[in-house]
Write a structure and sequence with these properties.
Blueprint (H helix, E strand, L loop, with lengths): L1 E6 L10 H10 L2 E8 L2 H13 L3 E5 L11 H10 L5 E10 L7 H18 L3 E6 L2 H10 L7 E3 L6 H9 L2 E5 L9 H9 L5 E3 L21 H12 L3 H16 L4
Parallel strand pairs: 1-2, 2-3, 3-4, 4-5, 5-6, 6-7, 7-8
Helix pairs in contact: 8-9
Amino acid sequence: MLFDTHAHLNATQFEEDVVEVIERAKSENVSHIVVVGFDRETITRAMELTEQYDMIYAAVGWHPVDAIDMTDEDLDWIKQLAAHPKVVAIGEMGLDYYWDKSPKEIQQEVFRKQIRLAKEVKLPIIIHNREATEDVVKILQEENASEVGGIMHCFTGSLETAEQCMKMNFYLSFGGPVTFKNAKKPKEVVKEIPMDFLLIETDCPYLTPHPFRGKRNEPSYVKYVAEQIAELKGLTFEEVAKKTSDNAMKLFGITR
């Protein structure tokens, strides 16, 4: 079975056919999906999906691009939702220095607040990092995020960064980009890191893997990520599927 650890089935791109998308995922042996909410609208939809489908779990947090919009009331709401039995992580959170909607200082403050909340509610965190690696690692270290650990979502960093993250109890999750022909760095990191720290994801509807690059991504395509990792590590597809699923179940505290 396959575990898609990061999906946005709460996105508007799935409004018309989410039922069919989930059925296709099941037909490709996807057993679990974590739908990630990152603002009021997407968190609400993620929670609705967890109620409708046994296989769907939720992560709730606030995206760094929209950090400037987060209020204390939003943070309190996330804390309340964290008590829900199908909320398995806080996030996605982190830093995004590519877009300039939210000033860096505000992003960092909101990031720190969410790490502290996750430690309070004892849930792992899901990290979004775009062009901010040095500050992301620094904040994780300063806030002792290793207490809860979590996931470096859609990891594209160096082996050195990967080692820093693994020391802090973070799994490295790989998605569609690892299947791209020009993705030299992610492929090298996958080859080098131990399977005990590896997860797979789609980040759908974005980052669609080869051979569907350019089209809408969906959870059924997570198998192409697993196939690429199996090839890079000299393992069978079944070995990668089982180990990455076991890793996800362990991290998220899912027993079935």
